[in-house]
Amino acid sequence: MNAPTTDIEISEELVRKFDKLGPRYTSYPTADRFHAAFTEQTYRGYLEQRAGHSSNPPLSLYVHLPFCESLCYFCACNKIITKDHARVAEYLRYLDKEMALVASRLGTDRKTVQLHLGGGTPTFFNADELGQLMAMLRRHFDFTPDAELGVEIDPRTVHPGTLTMLAGLGFNRNSFGVQDFDPAVQQAVNRIQPLDMVERAVQESRKAGFQSINADLIYGLPKQTLESFGRTLDSLIALSPDRIALYNYAHLPQRFKAQRLIVASDLPSAEARLQIFLMSMRRLLDAGYVYIGLDHFSKPDDELNKARLDKSLHRNFQGYTTRAECDLIGFGVSAISKVGDSYSQAVRTVNAYYQHLDAGMLPIEKGFELSQDDVLRRDIIMTLMCSAPVEVAAVNAKYGIDFNTYFAPELARLKPYEDAGLITIDPTAIRITPKGRLFVRASGMVFDSYLGQPTTSTYSKLI
Ligand code: SF4
Fold first, then answer.
1. Centre of ligand 1 from the C-alpha of residue 68, in Å
2. Which domains does the chain have, with CATH numbers?
3. In the chain, what is the straight-line distance between the N-terminal and C-terminal CA atoms, in Å?
4. Burial readout 243-280 (b: 16 or more C-beta within 10 A, e: otherwise)
5. Are 377 and 447 in contact (CB under 8 A)?
6. How many A from CA of 120 to the centre of ligand 1?
7. CA-based angle 7:12:16, to the nearest 5?
8. Which of 42-51, 87-96, 117-126 is least confident?
9. Who has the most CB within 10 Å: 67, 73, 87, 410?
10. Of 276, 51, 60, the residue nearest 185 (C-alpha)
11. Is the pTM of this model over 0.70?
């Protein structure tokens, strides 16, 4: 790897002072603001509006595959634990119905530049079923030759030939759920996947020609210590994934039933978590990874970092992405879509999903139509989340506002961050400083006009 960059400064004192509860801004407004007054007819309207336009943005597709064989106790995903693989055939039939309904409304001139399979466990589906899914997607949508095709991998479901099969279906990116290599931690969260299992899967990915390998880690899990997580980091760094996501475990047993199986007294203390986080940041940077933002790292030559440096990085429901504004179409239970200035989310249960589609309806449960003010604020928040400068003249020209007047209260609320050296504000731009890169959420929250309103969501801290 190239020499590590030094465009981030980590200060324990600032983390203690500025780390606070807040949204992760994979959308703005955040998903807890979606409401049921946004119906399937509203969503149809947005899809049909797009079909009538000649210069439509390309498509990014997401498919939620909810089945898992066993329960990881930290899980906060929408999943179905089952050993009954016969359920896949029925789910596939309904995905096909949903895709047909959406594709018929979108028109035929849309190019698809990105696909992500998430879950649940996509590799719960066998080779034949994944082949059917890809054939279905290619029948309904027109993929560009250089489209990014990504899939989440549970190493426990990888058999010799699985990665080669996925590459054969066109997948060129994958993401391994590693979490922690320590056997005691794996036992405590009911996810046993020894290091050599992940090693074999990563090696087969490389042989199969995957262009980008991501690994997810979670800190704050039960039985974790500074030393044990240090060993996990060393093992992962030796595997040399192109990207690493370092997630913070949020223990919310009232909200996520699975987490009630975690023994709370096994969890590291707040102080231990802070030390694990600081050690992890330093170790990844020392190993040559660069900090992309929030909880994401990449190798310096990864296209995420190139996009960050040339200010073309974006943020969407899949995290950071290099693909500029796409319409995002989600399929399957609880999948979220973003079409034009709207967000929508599908129903959460398979029964409700099947009932909607049997009635010829899109399975929408809720959504949100953005106002002009929402669009403007989203633009600013996402720019800050990507650590890019908010250029005052460009915002004024794009939205027909006078930035300093329109955002006078927000500029006043940014003062403490400016005083602490996390941002700079001058008449031309707001810029995130190297010290402020860990706290982009806090700067973004200043522009969130919904934060004072009641929410059903429980926000997390950075640490
Ligand atoms: S963490 Fe992933 S594999 Fe584990 S139960 Fe949740 S969705 Fe399934």
1. 6
2. 6-29+371-451 (1.10.10.920), 31-328 (3.80.30.20)
3. 28
4. bbbbbbbbeeeeebebbeebeeeebbeeebbbbbbbbb
5. yes
6. 5
7. 120
8. 42-51
9. 67
10. 276
11. yes
